[in-house]
Design goal:
The chain is an alpha+beta fold. It is built from 25 helices and 11 strands. Strand 1 and strand 2 form a beta hairpin. Mean pLDDT is about 85; it is low at about 260-325.
């Protein structure tokens, strides 16, 4: 009897699958269309409300809005933005993203403070693309979860925890410099590439106590995936279409590397067994069959009998993402390290003291963190925080360091002053100590001035979760988006005297008096500021001192002047940021 019921059910499926699938596809299409219409209407209402309060720069295209300026290239777009910031300095302005979306560009430090003193989440349309990789780490989480995890992680960046990391920064920097020493004197190198590997090396040591020799070995899956995910995220951030649609992005060549889609019929058996199937259609079909025959059909029957005979495959209509290849590699690596470390901690609690280290890494802090109720972080939360720290901590620091070196190359007098200070502090030593850092006063001034002109994270974007009223009475409605350009804020002539000049002494104590506290924000500010800013500054000062002690840096005049482009971090436009390195004989 059971066999007859199964046969009847499968016969029903064969006759009605096309109709059911078409109805389901139509229903999904209508739902997506309605969702889009509602989103557009909501966005238009918000834009109209903003235009009543804030000025809109002229020249917006009826369809593209102010994005029309971006079509003419980064240089033209940055020039236009700079002019608008100066013109609308007092109140900010509305930047139109297309015909139905607007975003407030906050330009005055008072308005910037009003935005950053809140805990509104990062702009989801931009940062949300990182969620498959970073999950709900501090960068992307919000609300009670963010409050709890921020409180649990803050002790991990106490000075006592950071002290041993300076030795690790020295190790990684010296490994890079040893590679430079093997080059011909005067060789031109892409400093972004070298510095990114160096900071990744440091992060692996400080976060996971992993010495991967990533600066000398050719590659491994984890390191390659970290680099690939970072580059893919940067690429996606340049495209409005890819930002707005996960599906469209998944069909692109870069999207298939980040998030490959199953669209090949020949792989249907493997696809279905792994669960990559159009769930809505399958559910409707099986529910219809169950109601008609009161008999469940096994998944094996459905696969082996129906799919083998039918010329229509459900997953052909709507491909579903499988596990993200690069994300999966990174996650598995982190999860395995977490599992091993938890086993070690269990052995320690059982009296085995064979596990000994000279410092606590970030993972140790995460595993030991407990809230007031005695609850720690879950394995998924730990993995998200590890992946977030790896992402935020290596490429951003590499960007800050690369542009600092560039500034010192363009201003050789300041480079020489930094070199003399490094030589006086280190006295020929190749390892920086915690006690050395306060003595690097001029290096600190140069790093800050470089971060003013070239902030590693050039922009801050927030979703306003509740209405925001500024000090002058203007109100930003709930659901609005706010954009803060740190490069433009740091170069505003209304805040800085001769803003385009490289003048490290503007950060001396006497010259800093009276400056607005929200005029210089290389690590953001407020409750959602960068939790690792002291970590980053320590690495920047350590690396600059060791590099300048051993090498003289000059420009590569055969290549065009590097032009900064704002991606998720500040990078140099093609061909990149190349400098020439010449070893210095040490006494």
């Amino acid at each position: 009897m059971s066999s007859d019921n199964a046969s009847n059910t499968l016969a029903f499926l064969s006759r009605h699958v096309l109709t059911t699938a078409l109805w389901c596809t139509a229903a999904v299409g209508v739902a997506v269309l309605l969702k889009g219409v509602v989103a557009v209407v909501r966005s238009l209402r918000n834009l109209w409300a903003l235009e009543k309060v804030f000025p809109v720069p002229p020249g917006a295209h009826w369809l593209l809005g102010h994005l029309v300026f971006a079509k003419q290239g980064d240089r033209h777009f940055q020039k236009a933005m700079s002019e608008w910031v100066q013109q609308y300095h007092q109140h900010g302005f509305i930047f139109k993203h297309g015909a139905a979306m607007g975003r407030l560009v906050a330009t005055h430090p008072d308005d910037v403070r009003a935005v950053l003193m809140r805990t509104d989440q990062k702009l989801e349309i931009i940062y949300g693309m990182l969620r498959p990789w970073l999950g709900d780490g501090l960068l992307l989480s919000s609300g009670p979860k963010w409050f709890r995890n921020r409180r649990l992680l803050t002790p991990g960046f106490h000075f006592e925890i950071l002290k041993p990391y300076v030795r690790l920064f020295s190790e990684s920097t010296n490994a890079m410099l040893n590679n430079w020493k093997d080059l011909k004197p005067g060789s031109s190198i892409d400093v972004f590439h070298h510095l990114s590997l160096m900071t990744l090396d440091s992060m692996l040591k400080c976060t996971l106590s992993q010495n991967t020799n990533c600066q000398t070995r050719k590659t491994n899956d984890y390191l390659s995936s970290i680099h690939e995910l970072t580059e893919l995220a940067m690429q996606r951030g340049r495209s409005i279409i890819y930002l707005l649609s996960d599906f469209v992005y998944g069909l692109s060549s870069s999207g298939r590397r980040f998030c490959p889609l199953i669209i090949n019929r020949k792989r249907r058996d493997q696809t279905i067994k792994e669960g990559y199937i159009f769930i809505c259609t399958y559910t409707l079909i099986m529910t219809s069959a169950h109601r008609k025959y009161s008999q469940s059909v096994t998944f094996d029957d459905f696969e082996n009998t129906f799919l083998e005979k039918s010329c229509i495959y459900v997953h052909t209509f709507t491909p579903i993402p499988r596990h993200k290849a690069a994300c999966n590699i990174v996650h598995k690596y982190s999860e395995e390290i977490i599992r091993q470390r938890k086993e070690v901690l269990k052995q320690q609690s059982a009296g085995d003291s064979t596990y000994g280290k000279k410092y606590l890494d970030f993972l140790d802090i995460l595993l030991r963190a407990k809230d007031e109720d005695g609850n720690g972080l879950t394995d998924a939360e730990i993995r998200d925080e590890v992946d977030t720290f790896m992402f935020e901590g290596h490429d951003t620091t590499a960007s800050g360091l690369a542009w600092t070196l560039y500034c010192l190359v363009r201003h050789p007098g300041h480079q020489e002053k930094c070199r003399k200070e490094a030589q006086e502090v280190l006295q020929g030593r190749t390892e920086v100590t915690w006690e050395d850092l306060p003595s690097m006063k001029y290096i600190t001034l140069c790093v800050k001035e470089s971060l003013r002109l070239y902030p590693a994270v050039p922009e801050i974007l927030r979703d306003v979760e509740t209405s925001l009223t500024f000090s002058d009475g203007r109100t930003l409605p709930e659901g609005s988006q706010v954009y803060i350009s740190l490069r433009l804020l740091h170069r505003s002539p209304h805040i800085w005297e001769k803003p385009e000049e490289y003048d490290p002494l503007r950060f001396s104590p006497e010259n800093s008096k009276g400056r607005h506290p929200y005029a210089f924000l290389p690590f953001s500010a407020g409750p959602r500021n960068c939790i690792g800013q002291h970590f980053a500054m320590n690495e920047l000062k350590t690396a600059v001192a060791l590099i300048l002690q051993r090498f003289s840096l000059t420009t590569d005049d055969t290549l065009p002047e590097p032009f900064p482009v704002e991606r998720m971090i500040l990078r140099a436009d093609s061909p990149g940021l190349y400098l020439r390195t010449t070893p210095i004989e040490m006494d």
